[in-house]
Amino acid sequence: MPLVDKLVICGVGLIGGSFALGLKRAQAVGHVVGIGRRREPLERALALGVIDEIATDWAEALRDADLVLLAAPVGQMDTIMAAMAPHLRDGTVVTDAGSTKRDVVAAIRRHFGHCLAQVVPAHPIAGAEKSGVEAAFADLYVKRKVVLTPLAESRGEAVEFVRAAWQACGATVVDMSPQEHDQVFAAVSHLPHLLAFGLVDDLAQRDNAELLFSHAASGFRDFTRIAGSHPEMWRDICVANRVALLAELDAYLDELSRLRAMLVAGDGPALEAVFERARRARNAWAEGLPVQTAE
Questions:
Q1: Which of 91, 187, 196, 201 is the right S-S partner for 227, CB 3.0 to 4.6 Å?
Q2: What is the pLDDT of residues 111-151, one digit of tens each?
Q3: Left if phi > 0, otherwise alpha if psi is -120 to 50, otherwise beta: which for 25?
């Protein structure tokens, strides 16, 4: 018997599609049902073999479902949960793949108050600048982290079921509180995306944009790769986590002010010290070593 007999995915794109493919590769799922806002992406997912059936409404989708993954942008979660809540019954575990957690948990409490024990919020730390079901692949979660942020009410069996599903896709699963999650990822994910989008937008609006982009090379490509990500998804993430993101942006602006002062003063040694600390920290992280930046 597969781990998941019937899986329902709402939002069959890169994240949801790769979850389905990962479970299929592991022979851990029996039947995958897709549901979403538009028919066309679902038909494409069906043609690609990512899903096995298209559901037209939540009553149909949730019938005898073991697990539901909500993989739509976080800005859609409230509407999705409101639509599915009347049809959710005991025995169906619900998880999500949202990049923010406090807002998702608030929506869960608004709509799923009758079944909080079977809801386990989560966030896979994986993705790519490509989006859509065509970008999905079975290895996306191999050796990647998935963060679970269980509710106080989440049943232990439900938490372990969701953990086992992500592990079947090859992921390493860790636990955090929703608050800690949003603070951490404001710093290491949401801020970098905001900066990359902002830099590319700034250059693209200049009168000499064509000249600038024609001379951009690998450094620019590496720094701005994530600016090719899904705009709607990142709009929702930034708005949803704006309190933590603003705190991180303010801290970064302080760092930029310090760097600007060093440039104004022509203080090469101070700049080099910053660059050396950053180099050590970045290389340690890349090599899986503890990051130690203190002099």
A1: 196
A2: 999 999 999 999 999 876 677 899 999 999 999 999 999 99
A3: alpha
Cα separations in angstroms, 51 against 82, 97, 164, 222: 24, 17, 20, 33
CB 112 within 8 A of CB 119: yes
The 10 Å Cβ neighbour count of residue 83 is 14
Show the CA angle centred on residue 200, arms to residues 199 and 202, nearest 5°: 65
With 0-12 / 13-18 / 19 or more C-beta atoms within 10 angstroms meaning exposed / middle / buried, residue 290 is exposed
For residues 19 and 162, the answer to whether their CB atoms sit within 8 Å is no
Cα–Cα distance between 98 and 2 in angstroms, integer?
Answer: 25
Strand spans (E) along the chain: 4-10, 29-35, 53-54, 67-70, 93-96, 119-120, 122-124, 145-148, 172-175
* Distance from C-alpha of 123 to C-alpha of 249, rounded to nearest angstrom: 22
| pLDDT 10s digits, 191-207 | 999 999 999 999 999 99
Residues near 126 by Cβ (< 8 Å), separated by ≥ 6?
15, 18, 140, 141, 144, 145, 146, 171
Q: CA–CA separation, 118 vs 93, rounded Å?
A: 5
* Segment 171-175 long-range contacts (CB within 8 Å, at least 24 positions apart): 171/124, 171/126, 171/141, 171/142, 171/143, 171/144, 171/145, 171/146, 172/143, 172/144, 172/145, 172/146, 173/145, 173/146, 173/147, 173/148, 174/145, 174/146, 174/147, 174/148, 175/147, 175/148, 175/149, 175/150
